[in-house]
Structures are given as structure tokens and as C-alpha cells.
């Protein structure tokens, strides 16, 4: 009998864990496994705020795929997925080649969502890949270098506006305030000239999170010199200028800033809708076993999927934690189908949420308990290192881990 082809799209949190689990569960005679990713490395998306601020080398967040998967069990294809043809059961790559599948796992992650805010997409940078964070770091450094180059000092060069106070925005700000003293020293900029502004439409940081923890995070940021503009939405961005104001009404203010960063939202990969799946913001509401509705051989996980939270009756926010748990379920389900068994239902179990505030502080809820400060910071590092354990690469904890 022909061995089925399992094709995994994307080597992020969801895709890589699926591949590693399948190579463990299935034997070489059971199936052919192919992993397709646009780079020959995986990056720790959850760490990207650190290289963006310049507090970590980008290479620390990078893991080569062939160091994680067994090349004799998983065929790695470096390529850009253009779309999936579910009728022909083919993945079409941007270079014109095709890959046939019997089972496909969609794990292509997300892209920044700018909600149609005029000029935001064109004029703001986003934390979305290893190269995007290299660009942010270098842009900030070059801006600091320009502060005095025209004879008189120009504060707009050292003004940084961050749109969004969700986890990505808060964690980036935490790293940035850690980095600013070094930047000031290096580029001879007085600390009081540097302006860091956070604009968030909700009335609190980390909307929806525990009020005591959000208050802690807000106070920490204010104490470290971040101007918080809560309850304000970005209304438009032009090169070097952000216009913002309360969501109701026409009152607006502007800030001249050479660095503008948007962290306010993600949607799923555009390949989802391009491949004909019904989705909201490129996120497919998946069946109980992570399959796409109406497609017995298509699994969708991570930022491309939506899983309903039975408590809030809204989809869970897209996180690495849910992508990883879905990956375990999907690997099990594909192995079950190949062995003629039925699939099992996916149930998300939140292990808690922790956000860093710079290197030594943070907030979070772990096993139902609130944690702050150094305890939260320690816990965040434990969680970050846990991914290497999930990948079954214990040596990477020593090589790339956080301590
Ligand atoms: P990803 O991990 O993004 O992987 C997608 C992969 O697909 C990438 O390798 C990409 O290169 C590849 N790809 C994309 N398009 C193509 C294409 N067309 N062809 C080929 N390959 C392609 N979540 C948490 O749980 N905890 C956190 O603390 C946390 N912190 C975060 C901090 C930051 C700064 C950011 C940006 C996100 C954070 N998240 C966090 C969210 C988390 O990173 C994502 O939810 C998670 O990475 C989603 O996993 P995924 O497998 O769907 O996609």
C-alpha cells in the first residue's frame, strides 16, 4: 500500500512540534513526512521583542530546522507556500513547484493586523520575523545617532511610539526601557530627551487580564519613563507622525516620532483565505479535532485557527501555548487516522500566562496564582526554556536558554 504523504506548512511553534511528534510516533514505513517553511530555521516568535529592542542577539532566537528534526524521517523543503489546492490535494509553492499530500497541517502563523488605520501599514514597523526585528533594532540605533547630526538636537529622532499595550507591546516596552540607558550613553543623548509613548485604545494595559496585574504593569512602565496614552486609538500615521485620540469624538493629538511600532493585533496567514477556507481575519474556526470544517484531511492550528473558549464563548487569543497543544493533538490524530482509528477531541488547558517587564520583572498567573516581580521573571524564563524540552532538544537549553 502507498505510504500517505503528510505535509506540514510552517515550522513555527505549531508546525515544528507537529513534525517532532510525528517523527516520534510514526515509523518510516507508516508515512512520508514533509515540512515546508520559508526559512531553513525556526525562530522563537515569543522572544522577538528582545532582539527588537536590542537586548538579545537575533541569533539566540533562531534554531536551524535540521538541528531539531531527523532529516531521515522528515523531509525539509525550504519554500514559500503560495496556496493549497484542496481539490487536487496539492500545496503550491511560490517557485511554481507543487507538493502532493494526503494530510496537510496548516501552521503558517499570522501577520500584523492594522484594522484599516490609514498609513499604519506603510509607516509603522512590526515585530513579525527575525529580519523585521533586526530592522527595528538598527532603525532605533540609527535614529539615536541622528539626534544631533544637524547641529541642533532634534527630539523626534529619539521619540518612540508603540501602538498597542497587549503582551507584545508591553514586553517590547519593558525591554526598551532596559536598553535606553545604554543607547543614551553610546550615542551621547540625554535620557530626558528620549520620549517613549504607548498608545492603547482600551482603558488599561493588557486588556482583559487581571486588574491587579495590569495596574502593576502600568505603574512599572510609568515609573520607567513610558508615557501611557490609554483609552486612545491611533487614527492615522504619516512618515514620522502619529495622530491619535479617544475613539469617540474628533479630538486628536499628534506626536512626531522617528520610530513608530505597531503591536496592536494579528490575523492569520493570508494563505488561509487564498486557499478557499472560510475564515474571519484568516482564522478558521476548526472542528473539535482541529480539522478544517468539511475537510477530512486538512488540519489547521496556531494563529491560522480559532478555537472556541466555552467559558467566554469567544475564541481563545492566539498564543504559542495553544499552538503547541494543538500540535500535540494533531500529531496524535494523524497517526490515529493512518492506523485506521478515530481522532480525539482537542481541549485547551491554560497553564497560565506570564509577561516579562524587562529582564528582572514581570507579571502573571500560574496555576491560578498571581505572581509579580522577580518570581514572574523567573517563571517567564522557565516557560521560554520549556519549548526546547517540547522539541526534545535538551542541549538547546544550555546553548540558547535564558537564565
Ligand atoms: P508561528 O510560530 O508564527 O510560525 C509560523 C511559521 O510559518 C514561521 O516559521 C514562518 O516563517 C512560516 N511561514 C509563514 N508564512 C509562510 C509561507 N507562506 N510559506 C512558508 N512558510 C511560512 N504566545 C505565548 O503563548 N506566550 C508569549 O509569551 C508570547 N509572546 C509573544 C511575543 C511576541 C513579540 C510575539 C510577536 C508573539 C508572542 N506570542 C506569545 C504569540 C505566539 O508567538 C504565536 O501565537 C505563535 O508563534 C503562533 O504559532 P504558529 O505555529 O501558529 O505560528
UniProtKB/TrEMBL annotation:
Swiss-Prot/TrEMBL cofactor(s): FAD
Organism listed in the record: Exiguobacterium aurantiacum
Keywords per UniProt: FAD, Flavoprotein, Oxidoreductase
Keyword Ribonucleoprotein carried by entry: no
UniProt xrefs under Pfam families: Pyr_redox_2
Protein's recorded name: NAD(P)/FAD-dependent oxidoreductase
UniProt-listed PANTHER family: 64 KDA MITOCHONDRIAL NADH DEHYDROGENASE (EUROFUNG), APOPTOSIS-INDUCING FACTOR 1
Domain FAD/NAD(P)-binding residue range list: 5-327
InterPro entries assigned: FAD/NAD-bd_sf (IPR036188), FAD/NAD-binding_dom (IPR023753), NADH-Q_oxidoreductase (IPR051169)
Similarity field: Belongs to the NADH dehydrogenase family.
Transmembrane regions listed in the UniProt entry: none
